[in-house]
């Protein structure tokens, strides 16, 4: 069953097409959204989260129309949203800020609301910092405060824009645990630049570039598309689209290999780099023709 369905979505900022003819169905589980800067990822997430209206196409979330006031209210009651950037009102403590967001989410009973605030703060390992002012927290801690508010009420749809930004490896691992648990009963869509987070957490990956979807499938399918296009050598090869020297001293080359080279097992990062690179080549050829 689809939790959110987007059909023919378009969005422009002046002459720039941020999204073009995007079709996307989101169902329970974790969907990772990958793409270069400016690909349209944040715009897409904001439309799903009812924070932004599309210029073209149709959006339905839990069957509701976000272009109507009643539809937006019904969607937001079952939505947890973590924006890429968010401001914090001055003077709030960690507990006070999340409690304030819980009030906005219609948690009117004080005792149950406070219990829920304590639960989500404990989930992101901030249970011992409830009285500390948000402005005194580190960048990673403030990010976890925002993750906590998105988890209030165990929403059926979680829309997360760069949730692991600023987190150390242990905190990222903890967040993966939280999100994978939530995804057992909810729909999660997250945008990230961390391909390892997608590989570790997501069942499905969508690659967006130039405002269009260029891949929509399983992580394993995307990785398989790079088979035979990654090789190890003693130097950077001229035919490599991307190359870097590894800790072993060998160069990892990604592109179209010459014959008789030592092929390597591809990773999600390799496949993503190739897909985005192939798209760039296609655009160059279109421009020339």
Total number of helices: 9
C-alpha-based Rg, rounded: 21 Å
Secondary-structure element order, N to C: EEEHEHEHHHEHEHEEHEEEEH
Please count the beta strands (DSSP E, at least 2 residues each): 13
Q: For the largest beta sheet, what order do the strands appear in spatially?
A: 5-6-7-3-8-9
Percentage of residues in strands: 25-35%
Reported for the largest beta sheet, the result is: 6 strands, mixed
Report mean pLDDT, rounded to a whole number: 91
Q: What is the distance, rounded to the nearest whole angstrom, between the alpha carbons of the first and last residues?
A: 43 Å
Low-confidence stretches: 280-289
Helix content: 25-40%
What would you note in describing this structure?
This protein is an alpha/beta fold and 289 residues long. It is 35% helix and 27% strand. It is built from nine helices and 13 strands. The chain has helices at 41-48, 69-76, 94-104, 110-123, 139-150, 169-182, 195-201, 219-224, 268-288, and strands at 4-13, 16-26, 29-34, 56-61, 79-82, 157-161, 187-191, 204-209, 212-218, 230-233, 240-245, 251-255, 262-263. The protein has a six-stranded mixed beta sheet with strand order 5-6-7-3-8-9, with helices on both faces. A four-stranded antiparallel beta sheet has the order 11-12-10-13. It has a three-stranded antiparallel beta sheet with strand order 2-1-4, covered by helices on one side. The chain is globular. The N and C termini lie far apart (43 Å). The model is unreliable at 280-289 (pLDDT under 50).
């Amino acid at each position: 069953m689809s939790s959110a369905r987007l059909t023919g979505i378009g969005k422009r900022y002046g002459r720039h097409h941020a999204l073009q003819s995007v079709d996307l169905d989101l169902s329970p589980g974790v969907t990772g959204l990958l793409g270069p800067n400016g690909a349209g990822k944040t715009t897409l997430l904001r439309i799903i989260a009812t924070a932004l209206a599309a210029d073209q196409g149709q959006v339905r979330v839990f069957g509701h129309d976000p272009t109507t006031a009643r539809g937006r209210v019904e969607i937001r009651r079952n939505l947890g949203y973590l924006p890429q950037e968010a401001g914090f009102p001055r003077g709030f403590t960690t507990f006070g800020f999340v409690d304030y967001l819980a009030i906005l989410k219609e948690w009117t009973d004080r005792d149950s609301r406070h219990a829920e605030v304590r639960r989500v703060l404990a989930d992101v390992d901030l249970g011992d910092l409830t009285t500390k002012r948000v402005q005194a927290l580190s960048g990673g801690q403030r990010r976890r405060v925002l993750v906590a508010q998105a988890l209030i009420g165990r929403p059926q749809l979680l829309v997360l824009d760069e949730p692991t930004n600023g987190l150390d490896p242990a905190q990222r691992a903890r967040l993966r645990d939280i999100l994978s648990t939530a995804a057992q009963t909810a729909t999660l869509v997250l945008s990230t630049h961390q391909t390892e987070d997608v590989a570790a957490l997501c069942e499905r990956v969508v690659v967006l570039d130039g405002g269009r979807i260029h891949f929509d499938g399983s992580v394993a399918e995307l990785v398989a598309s790079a088979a035979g296009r990654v090789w190890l050598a003693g130097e950077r090869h001229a035919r490599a689209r991307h190359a870097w020297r590894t800790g072993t001293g060998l160069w990892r080359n990604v592109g179209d290999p010459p014959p008789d080279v030592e092929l390597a097992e591809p990773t999600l990062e390799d496949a993503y780099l190739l897909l985005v690179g192939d798209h760039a080549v296609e655009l160059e050829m279109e421009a020339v023709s």
